[in-house]
Amino acid sequence: MMKKYFILFGFLTILISCGKDDNPINPTGNEFYDVVFDKTYDLSTGPSEASDIIESSRGGYLVAGRNKTGTTNHAALLRLDKDGNELWDKTYFNGLGLYSVIEIQGSGYIAAGGARDSAYIVRTDYEGNIIWETYHSFNYSDVARKIIQTSDTGFLIIVNSYDNNGNARLIKLENDGDKNWVKIIQGDPALKIYSIKENADSTISLIATSKTFSQPVSWYITLDKNGNEIVRKSIDLSAVELGSTFYEYSVCQNSLGNYAGCGLEYFFLFNQEGDIIIKNAIQPTAGYDNVRMYSSNPAFNNGFVACGHQDKQVINGTAYTTKTTGSLFIFNSDGTFSNSLIIGDGTVYNLASSVILANDNSFVSVGYKSIDDVKGVVWVKKIKLK
Fold first, then answer.
1. In the 8-state DSSP scheme, what is residue 126?
2. What is the pLDDT of residue 203?
3. Would you say 255 and 298 are in contact if contact means Cβ atoms under 8 Å apart?
4. 112-138 pLDDT, tens per residue?
5. In which region does residue 202 sit, left (phi positive, over 0), alpha (psi from -120 to 50) or beta (all else)?
6. Above 80 in pLDDT, residue 239?
């Protein structure tokens, strides 16, 4: 996949939305911001799709994703300055894609993704040069979806399997990449993990859901620092609301301790005890048919921003086609919907797969934009609300 991913949207758009009548029609959205920059990167050895973005302590941004040579995918990083100008790009031919990246202060970066049939983790210096890389294989098509650094300078990595019978794994690595432990996060049916956080007491919090569209089967799980399960509490979120059978959607936490996340058209907020505060299906902007949200992050005043796309059916000659446009969705600290922002141009296929609130209070999103029927490029857009 790349989630955040593009061959799957035909599948996603046939899912039936529910609960939308409880929400007002959204405004058009693009009159609420100024564009700082809006750029694409068509690099022969650079990413052709983007999954994650961070702001670097050295200024500017780092994008994680993949590039494609013929039919072969490669893991890739793209470094930008504050104005969106490329500083460097690196291809890691031993990986197939990178889905999560973080900065190690004073040291460089570390990113997690997938290689052939295994999770792939690569640590680099500030110029993207490899310090070490490692692989971990458990089931067919294991992919590392999220990486965080722990207080002991090690790393925790979520690894999900695309085998419907394969449970998620949690890997703890030392600072030098050596494996400390691996824990299977069991479920019936099998689980995927959507979020991970190390708490002040060194316990670990996870948000997980089963690989099914049927009943609400999601959990808030607490582990000790060695990965042993302490508490598991059911959350009233179905697989459709939290994500889907095949693709992960992100969960984040604000400074109040509340968790927010998104799956398809749903946005939800729950507290540290796993109690739902709010759960809503978001209406599309007027003129669009569907909302699809892929990831979320904290925003202003303990609120949240989610990103994804909106689409609509249009007639092209005698046939219907789908127009897909990248969008951002703003939520207040209590989880109520505030606004949607159309950030795509509406003329070509485009979507936003990750968004951050930068230090200058701008939103910076990364994603994918098509330039013809067969080729796509990395798309980065920075906007500031009026």
1. T
2. 95
3. yes
4. 999 877 899 999 999 999 999 999 988
5. left
6. no
DSSP string for 207-258: EEEES-SSS--EEEEEE-TTS-EEEEEEES--HHHH--SS----EEE-TTS-
Structure-block tokens of residue 342: 């159309």
Instruction: Return d(Cα 91, Cα 46) in angstroms, integer.
Output: 7
Task: Look up the pTM and report it.
Answer: 0.88
| Phi, psi (deg, nearest 5) at residue 169 | -120, 150
Annotate 43-57 with b (16+ C-beta within 10 A) or e (fewer). beebbbbbbbbbbbe
Q: Write the CB contacts of 138 (distance below 8 Å, at least 6 apart in sequence).
A: 159, 161, 166, 169, 182
DSSP 11: H
Question: Locate tokens 């210096």: which residue?
Answer: 125
Smallest Cα–Cα separation from 149: which of 112, 182, 198, 113? 198
> Cβ distance 37 to 84 under 8 Å?
yes
- Cis ω before 216 (30° cut-off from 0): no
Report which secondary-structure segment, H or E, holds 41: strand 33-41
The secondary structure of 18-40 as a DSSP string is -SGGGSPPBP--GGGEEEEEEEE
**Which pLDDT belongs to residue 247?**
53
